[in-house]
Design a protein that fits this description.
Strand content: 15-25%
Shape: flat
Number of strands: 7
Length: 175
């Protein structure tokens, strides 16, 4: 434990205490003025850059959509060697599988009915311990096969997502 801080001066009377309190009040008000000025400067700087940043984000989204549209329209030719991506001069475009997750088998299954079915077959094995047990979806996905999942009204669902990875080294720009 560190040593306690020592005051820079000692107060010896009520008048001195009042003078120090006035100094404290003045310092607090000055700090608030400085923080306000900093916030105003930050807001002005943000406003200055906001439109060009938004324009670049919109341009990036449009270019990405153009690449995705091209790739999806031509994926059979681009994936003829079995890869789901293609390396271009300035990066890679392609498709990749998203993180697998559990999804109800069809619309007749709700998470409540799935919970009842899992509990009837596996007890509380696939439930987390809070007051109201909740299905531990990761554990269910890892341990049950497709047939067992279907019996409980579940299936593994995994989206395939388009991606773009630019290669900054081609422009001589780092990180």
């Amino acid at each position: 434990m560190g040593r306690p801080k020592q005051a820079s001066a000692q107060i010896n009377s009520i008048e001195e205490a009042n003078r120090v309190l006035r100094g404290l009040l003045t310092s607090e008000v000055e700090l608030e003025k400085l923080q306000g000025a900093m916030d105003l400067a930050r807001a002005e700087a943000t406003a200055k850059f906001e439109k060009p940043i938004d324009a670049q984000k919109a341009h990036i989204a449009d270019l990405t959509l153009q690449l995705q549209t091209f790739y999806m329209a031509n994926h059979k030719e681009l994936e003829k060697d079995g890869n789901k991506s293609v390396k271009l001069a300035f990066g890679i475009i392609g498709r990749r599988m998203g993180r697998p997750g559990l999804k109800p088998l069809n619309r007749s299954w709700t998470w409540a009915s799935i919970g009842i079915k899992l509990r009837s077959i596996y007890n509380l094995r696939y439930f987390r311990p809070p007051a109201e047990p909740e299905v531990d979806r990761e554990l269910v996905r890892k341990e049950l096969n497709d047939e067992q999942l279907a019996a409980c009204g579940l299936k593994v669902h995994q989206d395939e997502n388009f991606f773009v990875e630019t290669d900054r080294t081609t422009l001589g720009v780092d990180g």
